Structures are given as C-alpha cells and as structure tokens.
Amino acid sequence: MASWTIFGLVLCVLLVNVNSTDLQVGSSVNGELIFMETVKLSSIPLKVRTKNVFYNNGTNPRVIKGIAAIDLDRSKARATITSGGVGSTFANIKLKSERGDGLHYQIQIFA
Ligand SMILES: *[C@@H]1O[C@H](CO)[C@@H](O)[C@H](O)[C@H]1NC(C)=O
C-alpha cells in the first residue's frame, strides 16, 4: 500500500515536470532582481494568447545574468526569448498559450 502511495507521488512529480513550461536561463544566484512583471491574460475560446514582454533600461543598462519565466497556472503555455537575453542589456520574452488557454506568468530578470 505504502509503495503505491510513493509510486503515485513519484508519478505526480514526473507529470508536473513534464508539464512544466517554466523558462530558466542563466543564473539568479547572487543576482539582483532588476525586473519583475506578472502577465495575466484571460483565455478566449479557440484562441492562442500571446504576449511579448520587453525589458530594457536605458538609464542604467546592466548585463543580464539570468531570466526566469514562471508559469503560475502550470499550463501548457510556452515562454521563449526572442531577442537579447543573458549577456545582453535587454531581453524580449514571448509568451504563448495553448489554444483556448490563458496566460499567467511571472517574469524575473536578474543582473
Ligand atoms: C533602471 O534602473 C534604475 C536603477 O537600478 C532604476 O531606478 C529604474 O527604475 C530602472 N528603470 C526601468 C525602466 O527599469
């Protein structure tokens, strides 16, 4: 009985990992959080929701060390970096939902 419980737990962890669509590049260790934004778009039946999040700080440009985009809904959405990123002073992150789903992401940028 106990082994089934453990098996179930392991399976859950695996499923969570498979469904995880967080984007994590570079490192946030010892980094300073220089940008944080939460994106929430509601779902529209049969529609793919997309959102571009652009970060750039013209007054105080700093080289980005790490980027994290966390899927707060644990959905099947995708996050990709379309320009800039780690090693640049700017970044564009594109969020794309599954058809018929919404988007709920938190973007964090570390320098
Ligand atoms: C740019 O960086 C400065 C210093 O860290 C900060 O005070 C300012 O809010 C930043 N601006 C933007 C648009 O992030």
Automatic annotation (TrEMBL):
The keyword Ribosomal protein does not apply. InterPro entries: MBF2. The keyword Signal applies. It comes from the Eukaryota. Residues 1-20 form the signal peptide. Keywords: Signal. It holds the Pfam family MBF2. This is Salivary secreted peptide. It comes from Loxostege sticticalis.
